[in-house]
Amino acid sequence: ENILLALGAEVVRTPTEASFLDLKSHIGVAFRLQKELPNAIILDQYTNIANPLEHYDKTAEELLYALDDNLDMLVAGAGTGGTISGIGHKLKEVCPKCKIVGVDPIGSILSDPEHSEVSAYEVEGIGYDFIPTVLDRDIINLWMRSNDKDSFETSRLLAKHEGLLCGGSAGANVFCAMQAAKELN
């Protein structure tokens, strides 16, 4: 936030607990500001098909190149769904047996919309209280639920032992990846 302010931006804070459709939510405020401000645009990663397509065309290709087109499993956090959906589709084309595992924090509904209860969680960047349009749940073979304690403990371990400074969502991904790897034959 300080960098944005230093560059002359005006930061508008929204309540974390506001649901996606609430006019006070980050997206509700963004759409209001788009109408009020001249030349304002919203890229809208929740519904913009360019989100998963970029990961299909670029991110997945980078992974396939680095791993010689040989992946058994991808574990990725789900937020907007663009990353896991785009990469997942490309991997299924090139590595049909590749297992796609989605990571969703407890308190989000992405992994099981019909049976999940929305509740607070601290991990940022993954999970939502609605299903984004770009999330293709059909590409995901398995969902794993993460909790704040394991997520943040793992991010601290990554810093201490690997020199990786990352947040709770990376911790959630690594924690779930380590659990999923135990089941990999």
Quick tags:
single chain, 185 residues, mainly alpha, Rossmann fold, 2 domains, three-stranded parallel beta sheet, 6 helices, pyridoxal phosphate
Architecture overview:
With 185 residues, the chain is mainly α. It folds into 2 domains: 2-36, no CATH class; 50-183, Rossmann fold (3-Layer(aba) Sandwich), CATH 3.40.50. The protein is built from 6 helices and 3 strands; from the N terminus they run αααβαββαα. Strands 1-2-3 form a 3-stranded parallel sheet. β1 (73-77), α4 and β2 (99-105) form a beta-alpha-beta unit. α3 crosses α4 and α5 crosses α6. The model has no long low-confidence stretch (mean pLDDT 95).
Give the structure's gist in a few sentences:
The protein is mainly alpha-helical. 42% of the residues lie in helices and 9% in strands. The chain folds into two domains: 2-36, no CATH class; 50-183, Rossmann fold.
